[in-house]
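Run Glutamine-dependent NAD(+) synthetase through structure prediction, thanks.
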Amino acid sequence: LQMAGFHRKTRLAVCTLNNWALDFTGNLERIIKTCCESHTLGARLRLGPELEIPGYGCADHFFERDTEIHSWQCLRKITETSKQWPDLLVVTGMPVRFRGIVYNCLVALQNGFLLLIRPKLALCDDDVYRESRWFAAWSEKATTHEMRIDPDYGFEQDCVPFGDGVLESLDGVSIGFEICEELWTAQSSHIDLALRGVDIVCNGSGSHHILGKSNKRINQLVLGGSGKVGGVYLYSNHRGCDGDRVYYDGMSTVAHNGRLLVQIPQFDIEDTCLHSAIVDLRETQSFRSRIASMRNEAAGRKTLPFIQFNGRIVDQRISPLDKLPSEIIPIQHSPTEELCEGPPAWLWHYLRRSKMGGFFVPLSGGQDSAAVATMVRLMAEKVTSSVKKADENGTDDPSYYLNGERVGTNADELTNKILHTVYMASEHSSMETRKCADDLAGEIKSSHSSILIDTAVSALLGIFKLAQGFIPTFASSDNRETMALQNVQARIRMVLSYLFAQLSLVTKGRPGGLLVLGSANVDESLVGYVTKYDCSSADLNPIGSICKSDLRKFLNLAAEKYRIPSLKAIVESTPTAELRPLVDGKVAQTDEEEIGLTYDELSVIGSLRKPGLMGPYAMFEALLSIWSGKYTLDEIEHKVKLFYRRYAINRHKATVSTPAYHAEAYSCDDHRNDHRPFLYPDFSLQFDAISAKVAELKEQHKKID
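Sure, done. The structure for Glutamine-dependent NAD(+) synthetase is below.
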């Protein structure tokens, strides 16, 4: 027998689920699967992600009563099934309507009984989040009410506590809650919970991937928070694509007193993953007892509503000889390494859930389309590697299947089957870009071909001539003619891309069609250096929120780490649209020359615009410091004005931009991330202020000289 009071060990489980908005059947299966696994491992608590029952990304479907009702139906099934795991406390997530208002809630249940519905105290409306559009934040802190349960839902109880409360087990273990954004607020809920003596904090989260975000989330917030106030911190997050532009990047975690005990991988593809750890709750008491200032703060706090439940968290089956887990080092990828992992994983989940047969990429031989094709290749390597590991371990997962067929372990074969690339040459294309495209296609093993588009271009111009009696030429001094000639080539490539995507599998005797992948980077989208409805118009764009400088780093890393040497030549090549005539067989048109800004400059300017939130004048002042010594005052003035002129003229293109993987806060996606007008004035006041500042600074320099 364990000596009373000395034994305070328990096993706790966190999980990562690839749930899907409105996939109630699949979501329920994944939730119950992880509950069963938790029970088998001997865990006393299983924590799931935020809104895991309907899926976090339901968006305006949260307005629909259907979403609430189906969530309750699933909750009833989980509650009924929980009788099979009588010792397991299950924490799940769903929307709940209380007194006519819908809240984003965690729901705690055990052995067929709902224990507490805990609404979210702080909603997230930053970046692409829009939670206050659908939910209200719970404002009655440290308060609970009895909520009547609709008898039509079929529960065995009539009511359940609703509000900001803490659960307390028969053996005196207290469990508190915070939900996602509460961890990021200035006064995080777990601080208050710790000061009120709570042993375990459960955070069900819906946090998506942004380059470098995981470092702050795990190291600064989860580990930093538990290291500051002590206690066990459980963090469960979604992982995968639930039908939108974002990728949830998992990293579900168990931390104790600032030490990391469990971390679920960030970019694995499996639909479910569950890890557990044994913790000794006595260590929390020891940790907190030795911080005198914390004791004094805690003594003055009012108590929270503690809700007793008929269950035990301490597990007497755990022997004193059972070792506690050692502290592990957080696995942290660099932003460039994350580009090798996040977009490929997102592409795979989107492909298999869309039930399409693969991807089509118009491969130009340039850096952007090369990056997209390479991401598909890395996707194939990620999937086949996972399948190989599963075969070795004798396991299986729905993520290993594409349209009902289990994927093999050969990345070359998978890439050749699902990635179709075409080099669409015109009379303005160079031998250099064709060689780059052919070499890359050969190395990544895509199903590749080359075509000429000149016949189609001539046909369209012939139609225009019949109607108007006029043919535009590149020799004209009227820029409208040269732009029309360039745009018709670009748009023909879009039409051909969809033709190939629809019919390529027909020629191979395979069912289905292909998803067209776009390849416009965020820098080009910001200044409108794309043709509206050209190859930037596609079904998906894995690089649409990524700047050129980051893409170059990605290509260099992929060339070395994944042995794709042709990428080196592509990185070293000069970016060009190749829409103007060659001069002596060589490219005479370059992207940066036509834009008037380098891609590195665009990266700096784009970050100052958002997330820096600077208008023209504030940006000019910031660049005076950043580019001091590199450019003159006149040059900085010119670059700022040039950027904003191009941005204002071309902002309308962002309204029809292809749905892009959301990797950075500076994305100009008009749909959710970057809400701005698409018809702009001429910035006359702002530009006059910049000019006046330049004149003032020049005058100051004259006096100093």
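The radius of gyration is 29 Å.
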